[in-house]
């Protein structure tokens, strides 16, 4: 079981590092991230101020300049340490991450990057998102078909619970 503090620190680390954020942004689109941009900026500022106060801001600079797994893990370990030592910092980060996650969309993609050379039959597909009004559902993106494709009924639903 993953420690909740480590989980929050992992999310924070991902948000702090532009390379990781760029990959996520490409997948869900700019509009989706616009909604959580303020929370993301607050996370960045909160962590940056804390690391500067503690004299460890160089870890963030290094991870941004060279986001290797090792540099990311070191930054994450420092964030975990600061969260364990400073309950106010931990609480603030947890609240910001919850806010950011609630504003970020759910993304569902079915049959992306499909390549067909011959014949393929795909059955009926039902794609359902429950409880989040800003869910993005995508079906059949970037197909390369060099044959016959048969697709059954497709249903996409967004149920706001």
Explain what you see.
This protein is α/β, with parallel strands linked by helices. It is built from six helices and eight strands, in the order ααααααββββββββ. The strands form four sheets. A two-stranded parallel sheet has the order 1-5. It has a two-stranded parallel ribbon with strand order 2-6. A two-stranded parallel sheet has the order 3-7. Helix 1 packs across helix 6, helix 3 crosses helix 4 and helix 4 packs antiparallel against helix 5. The two termini are 28 Å apart.
Write the layout of secondary structure elements.
Blueprint: H1 4-16, H2 18-28, H3 30-54, H4 57-65, H5 69-85, H6 87-103, E1 107-112, E2 115-116, E3 119-122, E4 125-130, E5 136-141, E6 144-145, E7 148-151, E8 154-159
Parallel strand pairs: 1-5, 2-6, 3-7, 4-8
Helix pairs in contact: 1-5, 1-6, 3-4, 3-6, 4-5, 5-6
